[in-house]
Amino acid sequence: MALRDWFPKYGQDVVLLSVDLVGTFVFAVEGALAGIRGELDLLGLLVVSFVTALGGGTVRDLLIGAVPPNSIRDWRYGATAFAGGAAVFCFSPSFQHVPQQLLITLDAAGLALFAMAGAGKALEFGINPMISVLMGVLTGVGGGTIRDVLMARVPGILNTDIYASAALVGAAVMVIGLALKVPRTIAMTVGGVCCFVLRMAAVARHWNLPKVIAH
Question: In sequence order, what are the residues at sequence separation of 6 or more whose Cβ sits closer than 8 angstroms to the Cβ of residue 76?
Fold first, then answer.
């Protein structure tokens, strides 16, 4: 039996597409806000918005052979990312006064969604379950990592509250659920909730992975 026969066909329905685009917009706004803090001009701000929102998914698609990447094939993703960046540029005072807790909550929701979508798409392309989980993590955190590298700073996922680990746990829960023949919607929902709850708990309780303190 082929590996993909163990997993249900992954299809992006209208509801999932809508939520995916909302997540793209949220990450684009986060990228644009980082661009403002870095004193970037309009072009730089739009570039950072695009890579923050779509960088992880683009790298994932290239790695699993889904070419051209969805961010290029489907114009709605690029348009949404640029719309988020343009909105921040045009209405920066309003966006800069959005409560930080709201941004953290939306970011956690976007992370959960992208981790589920990334792992699911990798499974659809016949990637083995372990690597599919990693593709889910890459989808969720890749854009922010590329953004930080472009802005010459240590990527936040390497030294901040549990973030990539939350995506890893959520994607693993989803993949295990699918392997156990749990309906796709339920597996994705449970995995997404696990990712979201873990991320929010890490922020609230300041959880971090162990690190070595230099002397």
Answer: 21
* Contact in structure between 129 and 191 (CB atoms under 8 Å): no
- For the chain, give the longest Cα–Cα distance: 57
Report the pLDDT value the prediction gives residue 2, as an integer from 0 to 100.
53
Q: Which of 103, 58, 62, 105 is nearest to 77 (CA)?
A: 58
This prediction's pTM: 0.84
Calculate Rg over the CA atoms of the chain.
17
Is residue 120 within 8 A of residue 174, CB to CB? The reply is yes
pLDDT for the residue 55: 93
Which residues of the chain have a pLDDT value below 50? 10-11
Which DSSP helix (H) or strand (E) runs through 85? helix 75-90
> Is the distance from CB of 7 to CB of 101 less than 8 angstroms?
no
- CB neighbour list of residue 21: distance below 8 Å, 6 or more residues apart: 76, 77, 80
Query: Cα–Cα distance between 215 and 14 in angstroms, integer?
Result: 53
Distance of alpha carbon 111 from alpha carbon 94, whole angstroms? 24
Q: Are 164 and 170 in contact (CB under 8 A)?
A: no
Specify the pLDDT at position 6. Answer: 56
Q: Which residues, at least 6 apart from 130, have a Cβ–Cβ distance to it below 8 Å?
A: none
- Dihedral pair phi/psi, residue 107, rounded to 5°: -65, -45
Residue 160: predicted pLDDT:
66
Residue 84, token pair as written in the block? 């988020």
Q: pLDDT at position 132, please?
A: 94
